[in-house]
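Severity: low
Component: inverse-folding endpoint
Summary: output formatting inconsistent between runs
Steps to reproduce: submit the following structure tokens with default settings.
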């Protein structure tokens, strides 16, 4: 059976361009489904999935949308409706890939729909606004989206624009027609590993130790985006277990700082009941944006990772708040949980001689956890720094016990 590509566009402004891309995809022996997410224009549409169908799936109607002056509201309705339809099509295996086109607004809308689809599903966004400062990260977010910068405006079928669409059609065709490895582990149990540079040595040792025992270990840089993606991927059951060396994004979310990993951090594994090992890299440091420093931040003990990144020592009260939040999240887990804490520093930053090193103050966090965690959650204290071989070995041994 030929593969089918979902094409998402706005036919009120980009009809001829969209039809050209559709026809090019068909020339490559693929089928297409065209979804029109226009919010203005005529009620009728030449799309397979019309704006009225999109609006209905979002709980509204196209007439209501086209007559509304509340742009934010109707944009959210359209995105919600398009996402609902796209997810259903994917679930029923009626589509095998998705592509779309747009400027700044169109790219924001289409990529949000794309992000509702699972990791590993082919996604290609053709955008004339891909290089606008700050927008490309918003387009991609936690999604595995291929972003194709058209450079030129997506308007008027010039030879240059046809060249862009020809290459885009070939790209999405390659993604769906050439066999690729399934993201589901077919050999060995897949383990998610959250890590950061200051615990990279530990993470590498843990990865090597588990791989020797036949596990697949997939790392995530826990700086606020990739650990959000990790939580989403855990939720769709891509992993058999989690080793979370660097859950500092929990506290960063509480206080609204740079490594904010969202409200669901440290929850997905517990919800689906897979085993998890939790540690503490970066939990005792905070990273407010320097442009938003409060006067008291200037008085904090600090460690400069480089000229762009500074870690500030967390306060005693903040340590208590973070520990309470950890306990609330981990107590809801339906699978086994073990917490491993290195007593001689929670990262390479957190080492004797560095200004933020304070193991006595870290004891506040440990004591709150011991008081608040359910009795079946074991806390293991290891007399080592997180980057010492002894700690990595303790993590591997724990993993082999509960995974």
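Observed output (run 2 of 3):
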């Amino acid at each position: 059976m030929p593969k089918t590509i979902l094409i998402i566009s706005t036919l009120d402004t980009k009809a001829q361009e969209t039809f050209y891309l559709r026809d090019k995809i068909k020339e490559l022996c693929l089928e297409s489904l065209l979804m029109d997410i226009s919010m203005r224009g005529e009620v009728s549409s030449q799309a397979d999935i019309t704006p009225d169908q999109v609006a209905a799936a979002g709980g509204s109607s196209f007439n209501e949308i086209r007559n509304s002056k509340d742009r934010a509201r109707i944009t959210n309705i359209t995105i919600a409706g398009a996402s609902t339809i796209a997810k259903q099509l994917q679930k029923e295996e009626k589509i095998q890939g998705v592509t779309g086109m747009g400027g700044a607004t169109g790219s924001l809308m289409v990529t949000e729909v794309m992000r509702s689809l699972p990791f590993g599903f082919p996604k290609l966004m053709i955008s004339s606004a891909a290089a606008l400062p700050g927008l490309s990260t918003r387009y991609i977010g936690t999604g595995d989206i291929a972003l194709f910068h058209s450079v030129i405006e997506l308007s008027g079928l010039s030879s240059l624009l046809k060249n862009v669409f020809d290459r885009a059609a070939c790209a999405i065709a390659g993604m769906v027609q050439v066999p690729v490895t399934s993201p589901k582990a077919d050999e060995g149990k897949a383990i998610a590993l959250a890590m950061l540079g200051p615990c990279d040595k530990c993470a590498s040792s843990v990865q090597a130790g588990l791989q020797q025992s036949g596990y697949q270990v997939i790392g995530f840089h826990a700086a606020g985006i990739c650990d959000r993606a990790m939580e989403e991927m855990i939720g769709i059951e891509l992993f058999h277990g989690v080793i979370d060396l660097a859950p500092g994004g929990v506290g960063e979310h509480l206080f609204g700082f740079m490594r904010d990993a969202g409200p669901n951090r440290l929850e997905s594994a517990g919800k689906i009941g897979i085993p998890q090992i939790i540690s503490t890299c970066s939990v005792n440091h905070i990273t407010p944006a320097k442009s938003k420093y409060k006067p008291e931040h200037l008085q904090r003990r600090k460690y400069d990772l480089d000229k762009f990144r500074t870690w500030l020592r967390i306060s005693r009260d903040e340590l208590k708040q973070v520990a309470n939040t950890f306990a609330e999240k981990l107590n809801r887990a339906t699978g086994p949980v073990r917490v491993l804490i290195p007593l001689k520093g929670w990262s390479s930053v957190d080492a004797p001689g560095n200004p933020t090193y304070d193991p006595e103050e870290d004891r506040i966090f440990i004591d709150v956890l011991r008081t608040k965690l359910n009795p079946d959650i074991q806390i293991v204290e290891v007399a080592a720094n997180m980057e010492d071989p002894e700690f990595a070995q303790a993590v591997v041994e724990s993993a082999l016990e509960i995974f």
